Amino acid sequence: QVQLVESGGGSVQAGGSLRLSCLASGFTFSAYWMYWVRQAPGKEFEWISAINYSGGATYYADSVKGRFTINRDNAKKMLYLQMNSLKPDDTAMYYCAADAEWSYRTAPQQYNYWGQGTQVTVSS
Questions:
Q1: Would you give the DSSP letter of residue 15?
Q2: pLDDT 10s per residue in the chain (124 long)?
């Protein structure tokens, strides 16, 4: 059974940091691109970051570039998102997703696999 389980969300003040984690199971983790997408209250889903199979290539949306870092540990089947210098605009539900190919899709359901999300709230 395929599962992606996110954790690490919470409430933090602006300027703070959080590290999100995503534990994968039930599929060959190292054969998939991994993604983070998010949805702020009342807004559309937003693609924010991607990492290739080996972790050697990473990509970021302009809105998070320079503040967020994506990485993965294929041995542990873990995906991470280090979020620094958080802003109130980063408040959202964050989802990890997996796809066999590169994707710029925004909604988690448009990927091969996706998790249930973890909430991040940033107060000013």
A1: T
A2: 999 999 999 999 999 999 999 999 999 999 999 999 999 999 999 999 999 999 999 999 999 999 999 999 999 999 999 999 999 999 999 999 999 999 899 999 999 999 999 999 999 9
Site of tokens 């958080």:
86
Tokens representing 120 are 């991040």
Tracing tokens 């994707």 back to the chain, one arrives at 103
Alpha-carbon distances of 33 from 11, 50, 96, 98, rounded to whole Å: 28, 7, 11, 6
- Give the E-state strand segments of the chain in sequence order: 3-7, 10-13, 18-25, 33-39, 45-51, 58-60, 68-73, 78-83, 92-99, 113-114, 118-123
